[in-house]
Specification:
Radius of gyration: 15 Å
Strand content: 15-25%
Structural class: alpha/beta
CATH architecture: 3-Layer(aba) Sandwich
Number of domains: 1
CATH topology: Rossmann fold
Order of helices and strands: EHEHEHEHEH
Shape: globular
Number of strands: 5
CATH superfamily: Response regulator
Largest sheet: 5 strands, parallel
Strand order of the largest sheet: 2-1-3-4-5
Number of helices: 5
Distance between the termini: 26 Å
């Protein structure tokens, strides 16, 4: 399929680790799906972005949120809960992408209606493969809700 005829997908990455941000940017730049990766580094910024509060008053509604759990200011689980309790945001898919493989974090994420939970791989090649899988699954396999309503 020709890349230029595909709609641009907006992805919100909520991540405070500079190395992971760099890897995500690299991986999504090589994407087969046109995308714009928006990055915020803490939970408060994420909620401001989603609610279009300054300085994010012109922010687009993301097609997908990649959410780390271990964030400054407002923790990832609290961000997830606020998203899923907000009628204007709850239908945006939220994928937990974290280093934690604790059963309690996994359970609490799904109890707060996370759409998926992935533990970040340590190996660079595995990390890139994971991003390719995310991209393929969410933008080629899954049917997402209408974006502009």
């Amino acid at each position: 399929m020709n890349r230029r005829f595909l709609p641009t997908r907006h992805i919100l990455l909520v991540e405070d680790n500079p190395d992971d941000i760099f890897l995500m940017k690299m991986a999504f730049e090589e994407s087969t799906v046109p995308n714009h990766l928006h990055v915020v580094e803490d939970g408060e910024e994420a909620l401001n972005f989603l609610r279009k509060k300054n300085p994010y008053s012109q922010s687009p509604r993301p097609h997908l949120i990649l959410l780390d759990l271990n964030l400054p200011r407002i923790k990832g689980l609290d961000v997830l809960e606020q998203i899923k309790l907000d009628n204007d945001l709850k239908d945006i898919p939220v994928m937990i992408l974290t280093t934690s493989n604790y059963e309690d974090d996994i359970l609490k994420s799904y109890q707060r209606y996370a759409n998926s939970y992935i533990t970040k791989p340590v190996d660079f090649d595995d990390f890139i493969k994971m991003i390719r899988f995310i991209e393929h699954f969410w933008f080629n396999v899954v049917t997402l809700p209408p974006h502009d309503y």
